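Two quick folds needed for the group meeting slides. Do the first one here.
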Amino acid sequence: MKSHTLQILIADDDEGDRKQIKRAILQSGMVAECTETSRMKDALAACDECEFDCAIVDYRLPGEDGLEGITALHERFPYLAIIMSTGQGDEMIAAEAMKRGAADYIVKHRITAITVRRAIENAIVNCSLQRKVIQQQHELENFARVLAHDLRGPAASIETFATRIGERLQEGNLEKALQAAGWVIQTAQRMNQLIETLYRYTTADAKVVFEAVDMNQALEEARANLHQLIQESGASITAEILPPVFGSAPQLIQLLQNLIANGVKYCDKPVARIHVSASSRLPFDSDEPSWLFSVADNGIGISKFEHTRIFEPFTRLTAKLNREGTGLGLATCKRLIERHGGTIWCESQPGSGTVFFFTLPAVHFDVDRIPEPETAEAA
């Protein structure tokens, strides 16, 4: 289970039943805050105000159908773990509740610390897996679009250029044939870059070895991998002394490589300037030993509306500079950071550059706190 405080909603018109459920939750050892309501209308309003991890909903509410309430909750909050509580233990009712969106059910006279904890944990896990499956379905659809569009275009170009090579050779025009051959090579390179990007995104959740990583060395390797891009653009890459972290060196190299490449590619200034730094000060409450890193650039900037969207797969915000890309660079960064138990976000304004912030666990971070990859494979 997650280590954060669980937010649990209890919707039941009987105060005694609400207290019983709340008492069982507290006795279970779970760290949780409980919000109580006696009507479905109030439960829906509470969900609008707070992002709950789980809702325990009574089958019978005064003047309301508990099953209809579960349906309403599930439709408005599809990833909320819903548990139906009933005093009857009717399996037919339980089955109907499951069809309408409940993840589990509990019988009131059998509620104990053990049963309520098991029900809550199972419901949250099931909803998390459901969210993962839906997300992967969307990603598969996007992969199909990328494969159909982004790979079909270069493939068609290669076919056209190859045809031109044959025609020019028949004409004896070696200069034009060589020119077309150069276009074939460039197009094939773009295809390889796209395939490599897709591969890195799909393997971001793969199980890897976590160990102490020298972030200064990781940065140097990222710069070496980007040598041609940096040299051709004349970009300036500077950095402060970076602290060691606990993680996967290959994935952290890829993380820095993606962020630096973004800063270089999407810059409309004469010289792209990227600066990498780190601090132990986090902008939010945290009891975990972590480092806060930043990668600042002087690029085109990002509107506030897009600060979150840029980390979504296949989101492209580069039309202004007419850059080619899959929209997977920052999405891959997000998956890599989350794989390390960290968080990534940005601060930016159009025309004023962007600063990407991300947290990584310190070297002495407890290995048991690093999340394992999802059991469902990535798209």
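Then this one, please, same format:
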Amino acid sequence: MNHDADGQMNRRRFLQATGWAAGVLALDRVAAAKRLVLIAASDAEQISRIEWIPYRSSLRGPDEQPLQRCAVRITTTAGAQGWADFSILAMPDDQTAQAVSDTLLGQSPAHHARLWRQLYGQGLALGTLAALDVALWDLRGRMEGKPVHALLATQRDKVKTYLTTGFNLGEPALYAQYAGQAKDKGVRGIKIQPYIGWGLGTGGRVDAGFPDKDIAAYSAVREAVGPDYPCMADNHGAYTFDEALRVGRLLDELGYAWYESPMPETDAWIDRYTTLAKELRTPLCAPEAHPGDYEPRLAWIDKHACDIARISVHQGGFTACLQLALACENAGISLELHNVGADAYPHLQLLGATPETLIGHAELLSLSNERRVLPGRITPEPVFDADGNIAIPQTPGMGLELDWRYIFDHRIH
């Protein structure tokens, strides 16, 4: 896709646009960054306690072992609390937990932006940083009595959904059938993950894809759902450049909405993504698999290696997602977030704070809209309605209430 050179965004312009000064994040002054405006919180309260609570869920992973989770709870001197519930990978070791306490205890949650930057500068594991950041935002919202999206100026109360199929689903006809079911249930789009040899593509090696089979699946889906139904392609970094170009040209003809991660997403491939973007009309969505937070993604935006950026709350927290959203807005491109799953609530808050033109959809991994309550929680998981939309939570904080009795009863000591 051709890009306007006037829309180029470099790191210096991004830092200016989002209110960074002398290397310190200042979200309290983000009013200049168009729509996202942070409401000031009182600094009368101070953080007095940080609890890390690892626990066993009754859910089981692929190895049939109980899944382990980590809840973090932050309490202030006045008794206000905010929390987050993440994968056990967020759990810090004792030394890191002490360093976090040294940074946060005695500080005001109103200085969240500065505190996040300090934590970020300590080089915390991104999952640990994400859990802390979500808990701090949850605390801010609960102290203000507002959902997090309202702290940033609410833009919408619902978001469109699309369904992602999963890889190696079956023959092209099965992909077509699944896409038709999604359309019939009101879901607003379908993302096809076709055929892949696992363990090759995202690490920088290729020969993991099957472009001829993929072409058949993409074509069958388009025929099944008609010319106007949004379809997306996701290849998980499996193609060579030549394969990516050949498949991308077919997607141009089929009118796909975006082309996600066609080649490996290491920094060594950025220039090839830039070249591919110039050759295709279909927008490129990348990088998903890059292990870094929002900062490495700025280089992809700066080099026009993507037309749609992609990030998850696990990659540095809600603040990292917010920063990338601001970068995309200033660059004139879109952003997509990872799926609506066990950690969906921070994503839904960002969706509520941004317009559809910036972040278009929430991603589903299942056609089920049964209202499940996960172990350790009180709030049901978000589901889509008959029109294919998910409601944005309207309760204070992130919108997620935890079952503390369950969490402490299943605590890992």
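Slide caption for protein two: Residues 126-144 form the longest helix (19 residues).
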